Amino acid sequence: MDEWNMADNADVAATPGAEPPGEEGLLLDYLRRIGADRKDMFAVFLHLSGLRAGNKKSHFIDIAAHSFDDVVNNNDATLFSMNSADQVLICRDVPINKVDPVIEKIRGLFSEDPLTLGESGSLDDRFTTWYDLSNPEDYRACQAAVTAWAEEEEARKRREKESRNTMGAAMSGVPLNPTNLSEIGQRLQGVRVSDLIQQQSVIEINPQAKGKVLFREYFVSMSALQQRLSPDVNILGNIWLFQYMTETIDRRVLAVLSKRDFASLPHAISINLNIRTVLAREFQSFHQNVRQYADKVVIEFQMIDIFSDLDAFTSARDTLQEQGYRVLIDGLNPLSLQYFDPGLLDTDFIKINWGVEFVGEVSGRRMTEMHDAVKNTGRSRVILARIEDEAAVKWGLSLGINRFQGRYIDTIVAAMIAKGIV
Question: Is-contact 82 25, C-beta < 8 A?
């Protein structure tokens, strides 16, 4: 069993403030370290990322990984689990007949998936790839494959980071920090927010049919709020402190919306709230005012909030749905569908944020995977947001998505209103 210790890996240990290397980076470094001593070593890749979305659920991937426990614990073998769900087993002096039965067991687990149809070791085998690491050509091919994975993972992380920082970078001023947070929080208690609440529609587009407004999202303009609170402080400059501040914003928005006449609302509305807000007394007060119209309210939760406390999310989701509200997950991007099945969270809707960079970055195979993910989640539950042009709508339609939100959609809704359609 390979001993993975800090001394051996000092060169891949994270520098202070840097993000630690992912499994792809660790595997690449491992291959570099064994470069001079590869005798009797082989690697086998299990391409689980190529499974259909329904077969790629985390508990299935975990079962596949744990199937190698006996091989890893009793031999000189190491298993690397990629972020994409692929698995890589590297062995030294391990008989093939100890590994083959495990792989066939895993192949059997996914026997109904087209990925497993080829015979093991044949040219048609898309489920596994074997490398004789003692062979220089195989070793270089293995390194090249892992390098491509590592670069792809870094690109994904970079895109997600850029997406998170886009709004914060667009606003000027000193970043929000613990010192100015207290002062701004006090101002927020008394500042007027009712005139800062904006709306954006989510519509459904169907062939040979009129567009239909599903609901309108109510949200506070952050740039306008910054100008009113403290123009010299970038309230989006620190995502974690901003998340804390949004609980106060939630309370102010709920107070405003609870006074609305929900009986006369032509369309349902959505509100983006913190999970802690929904579990607090302010939301209960809101519910007392709108309880018979709860079906007209969609509560949106951010992914970052959900994964910070899954138990709290589950409690909030169940309570809301029992009371008649609908629940939406916000904060996904198209590429995340390769790594995460949002349908597992049992919400009424999921919202995926579009970005023009996804067109050129997504291969045909991954488009197929995302199409399958949309199908498995349920196309009536998926909304493609941040739509800026017609190309984004066409891209969404190609995946089976027909519910959209964004500035381009605003122009469509305006035209619908002008024609008296809505």
Answer: no
